[in-house]
Design a protein that fits this description.
The complex is a heterodimer of chains A (about 70) and B (about 950).
Chain A (H helix, E strand, L loop, with lengths): L5 H18 L16 H24 L8
Helix pairs in contact in A: 1-2
Chain B lengths: L6 H24 L1 H7 L2 H7 L6 H4 L1 H9 L2 H14 L1 H15 L4 H8 L3 H33 L4 H22 L9 H29 L2 H10 L1 H13 L2 H14 L1 H10 L3 H19 L2 H11 L9 H4 L4 H35 L8 H4 L1 H22 L6 H13 L2 H8 L6 H23 L5 H7 L6 H22 L5 H11 L12 H28 L8 H19 L1 H8 L8 H9 L10 H19 L3 E5 L5 E4 L1 H7 L3 H4 L11 H10 L3 E6 L5 E9 L6 E7 L1 H46 L6 H26 L8 E4 H12 L3 H5 L1 E6 L4 E4 L1 H18 L3 E8 L5 E8 L6 H6 L17 H11 L3 E7 L2 E8 L26
Parallel strand pairs in B: 7-9
Antiparallel strand pairs in B: 1-2, 1-5, 3-4, 4-5, 6-8, 9-10, 10-12, 11-12
Classes of the chains: A mainly alpha (about 70), B alpha+beta (about 950).
């Protein structure tokens, strides 16, 4: 699928890969332990929100950049 | 609980709340400032919070009770999906927006170019979502039961009636999404806020009342380590991954999510903020749930299911009322949007295709959609009332999520895999759907499940993992096999390409207002069609007699957009008559030519490109020859103005037509030249007879062929006139010889006649009369020869010609006259040769060449006729012993109006006409030697029609004769 912003897609792919590795791979045994604080999953979830906000901010920054005549 | 709101109060509170939401939607649309606020990108993220239904609000705690922290996966998957917005959501949104689609069924029907696919998806989605609707009913009914048990029996039906009215009223208002009506988004955003506020209040109060704050909670957990361990352990051992996968997909493919994310507001800024707003909203909704769960274990009445802990964790009536309101909010919003989205699918893909294309449908579409919405709500209620109450709210929800999962292979075909086909999709959906039915849906109705069977066989497997893995695996396998075993149909392949590049201009043939009225009248009735078209013309500022393609494109697009929301994309395109998008090349070409007059002028490079395209389109249109270009389907994409002039067929009328559909003789002729040798000439009769020359050329890309049609009637007439003039000039030159030739027999006749008058009874009178007759016949033959030569030709009348006789005839004609008789004529005819030719034209050639030889010869002229060396040609050589041709004249000897004779003795047309005539017979006329002067005429013994005019002249040959320059 052609996209007007391959950089943003690449960034999203990296963030998504990290997030999947953290919360949806067997590596979740690292944090899913009985002795972990009850709020830890929510903190990780908050990290996903931050990742999304960072992606949105990067995209917003690109859109506020110089506008070329051929855009 | 006597002081708690009972069933009546619960339904009354729900009615008030739903009325409030409706009021918000209406007020927002009427207030410009609120409208802007509702269209803010963050509002879209909040509106997508409709994902969290009473399953999350009430059932989340119940899910936690059975699956621990796995209940988070059903929203963590959404957060992951939001990170994939640039990769998955946005490409989908671009397709949906560009094609004005309204649902996943529309999208898949468009991608696989199949109404059957749309119908299958609609059926599957309705079947898959009914458990979800029933879940909402059950959640509210259970809530009412635990808050006011006396009214439990009728709370569910009352709530269903209320929601039906709400959906029919507010939902049908948004059956056709419009950017200027963001009321639904506003209502959903407010609803999300209410949910978050309600659960936060319940969580905070519970934390305070039950645990005395966070420190108290920590102390309680320290004292009860098993409570936390029970939540964490299933994350590693349980169905965390399949639940995450389900949620990842459901985040954008659940009908309500699809509707809000892509249909209501699918533009880039809106989706950008969804990346963080929706995960944050869901995080806030889930954060209090573990606290409520633990508090419920302490405070809830014995026997109360964990699904109602949100209501019962606090004993404060106000908090319980807020919790109930939050549940109402979550359920009603889900049912509203789900009913809107599913009703569109049902009407477009299940109802309309079954109806005859007559007028009542469109007028009653809104009523039809309302009916379907109500039907869906009551179907959900029926499932709730009739199905056994097995499992938790989460179990019901997951049935629907697993159903939605079955669309994933189809979506991969939309986004990534152009080879995917309708057959693969249908096979996959059937296979995955079967697993879903057997292992997810039927077990909820009390039937056995595959996971249960596996467990009974001693395998320790999670049934959700089995369902997800098996259904998606089988679906994907069949999808791949079905797609790979047969190539995609042409329409599918094109749609796949458009899905990958959705920003390509929407094509299709454009229709004028009158044509659109006629087409719409089929379903709207004449009056309805007239009103609709007039409304759109006014809205767009387009005149009723508009003919500019760019303006008509806007009108067609507007009509199609309006219809698309009502009858689906395929039906809308068909109704508007824009045909299949891939057949849009013609419209795009014409659109380019009128782009400068479009509503949205291009900028920068686009503008420069458009200018160049417009210039080229104008050149094509203004060419003096007719040009018709065909796409690789053999459909007309270019039909220029000259071709309209030649054929009388309007370019707009024939655009996108197959050649076979064109009226004869045009369709037949164009097919003949395209499929045949690539060159034909045809004469047309009628009041104005014409001669047309047609040529074709294949194009490697974009179009299958380009056909050029020339009207060469005037050129042929001019050529015939030139040839006739040349013959007349030759006759003038022959006149003296003819007169001399006639005078001798006349003298003889005269003398014999006088003698017979004096001696009428002479014995040899009969012999003398025979002599008179013989001389008269000789005169007759001379006159006949001359008349035959002077007669104007009427076209290429071809037939078998005996070349030997023709040569003798020409020699006889040229030998008339004193000078000619003084020459020695050496005629050598080696073989009797017959060719197919125009006798009259060839005789003119020979007479011209022989006359030139006679005029130049000193003592002899030699004519030799023989078969060529290769046997394929007949050769005639004419040689004279004259002074030869000067070097200057050699270069120009075939040029029109060039002559080496003294002024008044030659027109300069003779050799030029001869060259053209021989050329037309696919032969060659050349000056073989300049001393002695020898001309050679080579004629094919089997003629196969005129030569391709594109053949360049041989280097030694002069330029073509004058008929190309009338």
């Amino acid at each position: 699928m052609a996209s007007p912003d391959p950089d943003q897609r690449a960034r999203a792919a990296v963030v998504l890969a990290v997030a999947v590795a953290l919360v949806a791979s067997p590596a979740r045994v690292i944090w899913a332990r009985p002795e972990a604080p009850w709020w830890l999953p929510f903190a990780l979830w908050g990290g996903l929100c931050v990742g999304g906000a960072w992606l949105a901010a990067r995209e917003a920054g690109r859109r506020r950049g110089p506008v070329h005549d051929d855009e | 609980m006597s002081d708690m709101p009972g069933g009546v109060l619960a339904v009354a509170a729900a009615a008030l709340y739903l009325g409030l939401l409706s009021l918000i939607a209406v007020v927002v649309e009427r207030c410009p400032r609120l409208r802007r606020l509702a269209r803010h990108p963050i509002s879209v993220g909040l509106a997508l919070g409709v994902y969290a239904t009473s399953w999350t609000f009430y059932g989340g705690v119940g899910f936690a009770a059975t699956e621990g922290y796995n209940f988070l996966a059903i929203s963590v998957g959404v957060a992951l999906s939001c990170l994939a917005i640039p990769l998955v959501w946005r490409p989908l949104a671009r397709v949906v927006r560009a094609r004005q689609l309204q649902s996943a069924a529309d999208l898949l029907a468009y991608r696989y170019q199949s109404r059957a696919v749309g119908a299958a998806v609609a059926v599957f989605m309705v079947a898959g979502l009914l458990p979800y609707l029933s879940l909402q009913m059950r959640a509210i009914a259970d809530a009412a039961r635990w808050l006011g048990d006396a009214s439990y029996g009728w709370t569910g039906p009352a709530f269903a009636i209320l929601l039906s009215l709400f959906a029919m009223g507010l939902g049908s208002r948004y059956a056709e999404p419009r950017p200027d009506r963001p009321g639904l988004l506003a209502a959903l955003a407010v609803e999300s806020g209410v949910k978050v506020l309600a659960i936060t209040v319940v969580g905070a109060v519970t934390l305070s009342d039950v645990f005395g704050g966070l420190d108290g909670l920590d102390a309680w957990l320290a004292a009860h380590p098993q409570a936390l361990a029970d939540l964490y352990r299933p994350v590693v051992d349980g169905p965390w991954v399949p639940l995450t996968v389900l949620a990842f997909v459901a985040a954008f493919l659940l009908p309500r999510q699809f509707h809000v994310a892509f249909v209501e507001r699918g533009d880039d800024p809106g989706l950008r903020h969804v990346m963080w707003v929706l995960p944050t909203l869901l995080l806030l909704l889930h954060l209090p749930l573990p606290i409520i769960y633990w508090a419920g274990q302490i405070r809830a009445p014995v026997g109360a299911p964990a699904d109602v802990f949100v209501l019962l964790a606090s004993e404060r009536p106000g908090v319980r009322a807020i919790a109930f309101l939050g549940g109402i909010s979550a359920s009603s919003a889900m049912i509203l949007v789900c009913a809107v989205a599913l009703s569109g699918m049902v009407v477009n893909h299940l109802v309309l295709p079954l109806q005859p294309a007559r007028g009542w449908i469109y007028q009653r579409l809104t009523a039809l959609r309302r009916l379907v919405m109500a039907g869906l709500v009551f179907a959900g209620l029926a499932v709730h009332l009739l199905a056994p109450r097995a499992g938790t709210l989460a179990d019901l929800g997951l049935v629907s999520f697993t159903a939605v999962l079955q669309l994933v292979p189809g979506i991969i075909g939309v986004l990534f895999w152009t080879r995917a086909t309708r057959r693969g999709f249908v096979w996959g959906l059937c296979g995955g759907g079967l697993i879903w039915l057997l292992d997810a849906a039927l077990p909820q109705l009390g039937g056995p499940s595959l996971g249960g069977a596996l467990r009974a066989a001693g395998l320790d497997v999670d049934h959700r993992s089995v369902t997800v893995g098996l259904s998606l695996g089988l679906n994907s396998l069949l999808f791949a096999i079905g797609s790979l075993t047969a190539p995609p149909r042409r329409a599918e392949a094109r749609a796949a390409t458009f899905c990958r590049d959705p920003d390509a201009p929407p094509g299709g043939a454009v229709q004028g207002p009158d044509a659109l009225r006629r087409r719409l009248a089929v379903v709207l009735g004449p009056e309805g069609a007239r009103r609709q078209i007039d409304r759109f013309l006014t809205e767009l500022g387009i005149a009723a007699d508009e003919r500019r393609p760019a303006e008509l494109q806007r009108l067609s697009a507007r009509v199609e957009r309006a219809l698309s929301g009502l009858v689906g994309p395929l039906a809308a395109r068909a109704l508007v008559g824009r045909g299949d998008a891939p057949a849009a090349l013609a419209a795009e070409l014409r659109f380019v030519s009128g782009q400068g007059r479009g509503a949205t002028p291009p900028r920068g490079m686009q503008r420069a490109l458009a200018r160049v395209q417009r210039y080229l389109a104008t050149v094509l249109d203004e060419m003096p020859v007719g040009v018709c270009a065909l796409d690789d389907d053999g459909r007309v994409v270019v039909w220029n103005r000259a071709l309209t002039g030649i054929t009388g067929l309007d370019g707009d009328a024939v655009a996108d037509s197959a050649l076979a559909d064109l009226p004869d003789p045009w369709g037949h002729m164009l097919r003949e030249v395209r499929d045949g040798s690539g060159f034909i000439e045809r004469s047309l009769g009628g009041r104005r007879p014409r001669i047309l020359r047609l040529r074709s050329a294949d194009l490697p890309e974009e179009a299958a062929a380009v056909l050029v049609v020339e009207d060469i009637t005037a050129r042929r007439q001019l050529r015939a006139q030139a040839a006739h003039q040349d013959r007349l000039a030759s006759i003038g030159r022959l006149a003296a010889g003819v007169a001399h030739e006639i005078r001798n027999p006349l003298t003889g006749i005269l003398m014999v006649a006088r003698n017979l008058r004096l001696e009428p009874e002479a014995d040899d009178a009969a012999e003398r009369l025979d002599l008179v007759i013989g001389e008269a016949k000789r005169i007759d033959a001379i006159v006949r020869t001359l008349l035959g030569f002077s007669r104007e030709g009427d076209g290429p009348a071809r037939g078998a010609v005996d070349l030997a006789a023709l040569v003798e005839d020409a020699v006889k004609l040229v030998r008339l006259g004193k000078r000619a008789r003084a020459l020695e004529w050496r005629v050598s005819i080696a073989d009797p040769l017959t060719i197919e030719a125009d006798r009259q034209a060839l005789r003119q050639v020979l007479v011209n060449l022989l006359a030139n030889a006679r005029d130049a010869a000193g003592s002899w002229v030699e004519i030799a006729l023989a078969a060529g060396a290769d046997g394929a040609f007949a050769e005639i050589r004419i040689t004279d012993d004259g002074p030869g041709v000067s070097p200057d004249a050699v270069e120009r000897i075939f040029e029109p109006f060039f002559t080496s004779k003294p002024p008044g003795e030659g027109t300069g047309l003779g050799l030029a006409v001869c060259h053209r005539i021989v050329d037309e017979h696919r032969g060659h006329l050349e000056l073989l030697a300049d001393l002695p002067t020898t001309f050679r005429v080579r004629l094919p013994r089997v003629s196969s029609g005129p030569p391709p005019p594109s053949d360049p002249p041989l280097p030694s040959q002069p330029p073509p004769p004058p008929e190309d320059e009338p």
